[in-house]
Amino acid sequence: MTGDDTKHLPLEDLHVAASARFGAFAGWSMPLTYPAGVMKEHLHTREHAGLFDISHMKLFEIRGPGAEALLNRACPLDAGALEISQSKYTFLLNEAAGVIDDLIVTRLGRERFMVVANAGNAEADEKHLRQLAEDFDAKGEFDAKIEALDRVFLAIQGPEAWAALSRAGIETGSLLFMHGFEPRENWFMSRSGYTGEDGFEIGLPEVDARNLVAKLLEDERVMWVGLAARDSLRLEAGLCLHGLDITPEIDPASAGLMWAIPKEVRASGAFIGADALRAILERGPAQKRVGLKPEGRQPVRPGAALFDADGNAAGHVTSGGFGPSAGHPVAMGYVLTTLAKPGAKLFADVRGSKIPVDINPLPFTPHRYRKG
Amino acid sequence: MAKTYFTEDHEWLRVEGGIATIGITDYAQEQLGDLVFVELPEPGKKLAKGDTAVVVESVKAASDVYAPVDGEITEANTSLSSDPSLVNSAATSDGWLWKMKLADESQLEGLLDEAAYKAHIG
């Protein structure tokens, strides 16, 4: 899967210098691990601070008098209800209420929003949003500009992230979880992340990013953490990876993500997929996303089929691996709604053997966000 | 006197008295990263060259380790059940995976020596 189309991170030379092992992800050559290895990188993030290069993710700015209405159409969201600097986890949905992508939307100003999209979906998301904006514009209803920003995007995650940033000259002060702002020109910083820990995500120009990385890495509390540990951290935290746990074939109700959709939006929002989602809610989703804890040490992997005690098909695993902080294998998957109860016992087929798995509440490791 | 062979699939075999002790190379364990589980074979199981003998699981993925020659499993390294990380810390010694009685010692001739293996991994 090599070739000229593989995209490279702007800071790739720094990862090479740090002896990263690279691998392909969503069309990008990404640092998977550094010499410390996935276990140490994972545990270091939970204990101190991990530095992640997530420049494969894309920042979009949406601005103009029609920005709010465009977002309300594209996402099950009340963009107008967001206060300035408030962030919201939301989705782009298709007409069947399937998840095209999951996003974080932050209100920057009265008519300006920042959208963070997943790497593999960024181009499709941009096309989708532009198409919507054009359609609206043709009807004379909207005026919204969508700008894909050229930024390095860094995440610094863990209980000491704020202190390390402070030492590097960046005060995070009163910023609370799921809030973001523009601390400097062409910078965007939010208190957010995908590890379950307190932390920050910072989009900034490459030159500034190089300075910041150099300062952060002088601090022994900070180490580079690769995509492998990012995955084990988010899985322990019960967070969905688009493409595995949520896809255009899965709706937010089945995914257990209805908390992200405000009640009024559910009831009367005019977002794409609203009718389909209301129909699903009315009859109840046939399957639900659950946490899965395999017995013993053997991990169960995405794609593994799940069965009940009588051998009937019960669902399948969508994410699975080992949880270094949990100390045991961890997984997520979809099971028939009737079986989706904590404590229920199922069996996963792993290379022909049946591994007992318990349905386990999510997250596997408690979230430690700084909410106030 | 034991003789050591290597395969292009990054396994090593130490052969003594018709029994091969088999593991993965240091290069292979580095590529796999931290191992969290090793699925070991039962002694007595007969394997043909190319059959999956062992599955090693890292945090992220499961990888097959193939039998490099025909033979019968005589022993699996059960200390890996409690400490799979031995494969990372001591790939070519305490982190061995299984032992097998060779069915046809002439198959060894097709394997690499240390110099050839080093050239293979560059």
Automatic annotation (TrEMBL), chain A:
EC number: 2.1.2.10
Molecular function per GO: aminomethyltransferase activity; methyltransferase activity; transaminase activity
Keyword Protein biosynthesis on entry: no
Gene Ontology BP terms: glycine catabolic process; methylation
Domain Aminomethyltransferase C-terminal residue range list: 288-364
TM spans (from-to): none
Family matches, as SUPFAM superfamilies: Aminomethyltransferase beta-barrel domain, Folate-binding domain
Gene3D superfamilies, alphabetized: Aminomethyltransferase beta-barrel domains, Aminomethyltransferase fragment, Probable tRNA modification gtpase trme, domain 1
Protein name per its UniProtKB record: aminomethyltransferase
GO cellular component, one term: glycine cleavage complex
Enzyme class: transferase
Reactions that this protein is recorded to catalyse: N(6)-[(R)-S(8)-aminomethyldihydrolipoyl]-L-lysyl-[protein] + (6S)-5,6,7,8-tetrahydrofolate = N(6)-[(R)-dihydrolipoyl]-L-lysyl-[protein] + (6R)-5,10-methylene-5,6,7,8-tetrahydrofolate + NH4(+)
Domain annotation GCVT N-terminal: ranges: 12-262
PANTHER family the UniProt entry points to: AMINOMETHYLTRANSFERASE, AMINOMETHYLTRANSFERASE, MITOCHONDRIAL
Keywords assigned: Aminotransferase, Methyltransferase, Transferase
NCBIfam families in the record: gcvT, PRK00389.1, PRK13579.1
Natural source organism: Mesorhizobium prunaredense
InterPro entries: GcvT, GcvT/YgfZ/DmdA, GcvT/YgfZ_C, GcvT_C, GCVT_N, TrmE/GcvT-like
Residues holding substrate: 201
Gene that encodes the chain: gcvT
UniProtKB/TrEMBL annotation, chain B:
SUPFAM superfamilies named in the record: Single hybrid motif
Cofactor binding mode and count: Binds 1 lipoyl cofactor covalently.
Keyword annotations from UniProtKB, A to Z: Lipoyl
InterPro entries reported in the protein's UniProt record: 2-oxoA_DH_lipoyl-BS, Biotin_lipoyl, GCV_H, GCV_H/Fam206, GCV_H_sub, Single_hybrid_motif
Required co-factors: (R)-lipoate
Cellular-component GO terms for this entry: cytosol; glycine cleavage complex
Occurrences of domain Lipoyl-binding (ranges): 19-101
CDD domains with a match to the protein in the record: GCS_H
Positions of modified residues (N6-lipoyllysine): 60
A GO biological process held by the record: glycine decarboxylation via glycine cleavage system
Gene3D superfamilies (UniProt xref): 2.40.50.100
Quaternary structure note: The glycine cleavage system is composed of four proteins: P, T, L and H.
Family: Belongs to the GcvH family.
Role played: The glycine cleavage system catalyzes the degradation of glycine. The H protein shuttles the methylamine group of glycine from the P protein to the T protein.
Protein name according to UniProt: Glycine cleavage system H protein
